TrEMBL record:
Residue ranges constituting the HTH asnC-type domain according to the UniProt record: 2-63
InterPro entries: AsnC-type_HTH_dom, Dimeric_a/b-barrel, Tscrpt_reg_AsnC-like, Tscrpt_reg_AsnC/Lrp_C, WH-like_DNA-bd_sf, WH_DNA-bd_sf
A single GO cellular-component term on record: cytosol
GO terms of biological process kind: response to amino acid
Protein name: AsnC family transcriptional regulator
GO MF entry, a single one: sequence-specific DNA binding
Tree of life domain: Bacteria
Keywords assigned: DNA-binding, Transcription, Transcription regulation
Organism: Paenibacillus odorifer
Length: 148
């Protein structure tokens, strides 16, 4: 499916999605047009889902990064997911294996905002069975996507 050139392109894009076609072309000994065609093919095949940036939440005033695990009653799962998807403080929302578990990552300015979020957006949800939360102390590595 993927040859070594495709793997190299994916690896480099994962490291820096802003790398130019020209720079990639030099690394893989192809023309810029050939590299662009390969990237377009990887996008069309769904192998590359998106190009994104990582924004420093802390530098934008979001000092608290917290992870929540919610166990919900199955009958309320879809409604809770719909409500949380619309919440601007929710950065990540995953449905996990186990007894109807939702994993949420939120970004807030301070502990008072986190407390407000918990009361206004979490504790009031119908069908909530259990809530656990953890506050991030330090990020040692942050990598989205797959290692090639």
């Amino acid at each position: 499916m993927l040859d070594p050139i495709d793997n190299h392109i994916l690896m480099r894009l994962a490291q820096n999605s802003r790398i130019s076609y020209t720079d990639l072309a030099k690394e893989v000994s192809l023309s810029s047009v050939a590299v662009k065609d390969r990237i377009d093919r990887l996008v069309n095949q769904g192998i590359i889902e998106q190009f994104s940036i990582v924004i420093s939440a802390e530098k934008l005033g979001k000092k608290i990064s917290a992870y929540l695990e919610l166990e919900v009653e199955p009958a309320h799962l879809n409604h809770i997911v719909d409500v949380l998807k619309e919440n601007e403080r929710v950065a990540v929302l995953y449905e996990m294996t186990g007894p109807c578990i939702l994993h949420i990552h939120i970004l807030v300015e301070n502990l008072e905002e986190m407390e407000r979020f918990m009361h206004e957006s979490i504790y009031c949800l119908d069908g909530l069975v259990r809530v656990e939360n953890q506050i991030l102390l330090k990020r040692h590595k942050n990598q989205d996507g797959l290692n090639i």
